[in-house]
Amino acid sequence: MAEITVRDAKLFYTERGAGDAVVFVHGGLSDYRAWEAQLDPIGARYRAVSYSRRYGWPNQPIADGADDQLDPHVEDLAAFLRALDLAPAHLVGNSTGAFVALLLACRQPELVRTLVLEEPPVLPLWVSAQPRPAELLALLARRPRSFITLMRLFATGIGPAVKAFRRGDMETGLRVFATALEGRETFARRAARPGGPMRANVKVLAASLLGAGFPSFSAADARSVNVPVLLLNGTASPAINHRLSDALAEVLPNVERVRIPRASHHMHEDEPRAVNDAILGFLVKHPAAEGLAPRLLEVSAR
Predict the structure, then answer these.
(1) Domains of the chain, with CATH numbers?
(2) 52 near 58, Cβ under 8 Å?
(3) Phi, psi at residue 211, to the nearest 5°?
(4) What pLDDT digit, counting tens, does each position of 27-57 carry?
């Protein structure tokens, strides 16, 4: 473990290997430990770096009542890459960490070589942070199945979690949100880990859900991301994650897709060997940002 102060935050990180940088960006219910199964295999060929984002364990925890917006995380990642001389880096992100990496590629493309994104929650492609009726009606007209899936997420995940967090019930908020996003079996498995990243970072999730929501991200923003992108989905992941990835794949100009069998939202933990193979295969093909025609691959876990 090492630490570095970027902007106004002290960030803990760990790394393996040498060469071109591969930087791992965890999601909201996680920290640098999420990528334990990736660091050694990727570090055998690259400089693999996993850090805990602002407020993620064991960094300074988020203050009570604070909002956890994505924009500061994007700025932190940019500063982190510069401070450790990692840019341009291959970025591998999960969930909101994948969204952070995507936003950085859009805003500061000179820092990013390629992107590997595990199910980024690109809800702003459909609706704003506080959806207006006109937006929801437009989504219903364009994508009726996606509209139904989104309404189910609000009804069974986001809405009940927000109510629970507002009354201070962290356990219920965690359970209903994570079940909606990951599936019941994956949540039960991750929640059973004593001292694991999920419960260590639940206050970060609460702060993000009770805050102002995601920044805007349009189809035009996605089309401006010209680096090669690998989108990963777990075949056992809930439908909302697949539909959001489908929407993103439609507008990214330079994208591959890989489905990871038997895996859910945290596929790098569920099926690490298949995910590592997908990452390494992608990186070998893209030592620098070069064009790539879209295609769909199926990866089998060994």
Answers:
(1) 2-127+215-298 (3.40.50.1820), 133-209 (no CATH)
(2) yes
(3) -90, -155
(4) 999 999 999 999 999 999 999 999 999 999 9
Please choose, from the candidates 99, 72, 92, 90, the residue with its C-alpha nearest in 3D space to the C-alpha of residue 7: 72
Q: What is the secondary structure of 76-142 as a DSSP string?
A: HHHHHHHHTT--SEEEEEETHHHHHHHHHHHH-GGGEEEEEEE----GGGTS-SS--HHHHHHHHHH
Q: How far apart are CA 186 and CA 84, in angstroms?
A: 34
The amino acid occupying position 38 is Q
Of the CA atoms within 13 Å of residue 83, those in its CB half-sphere come to: 16
Tell me the CA end-to-end span of the chain in Å, nearest whole number: 30
The two beta strands, 229-234 and 112-118, are: parallel
pTM (2 d.p.): 0.92
For residue 35, the 8-state DSSP code is G
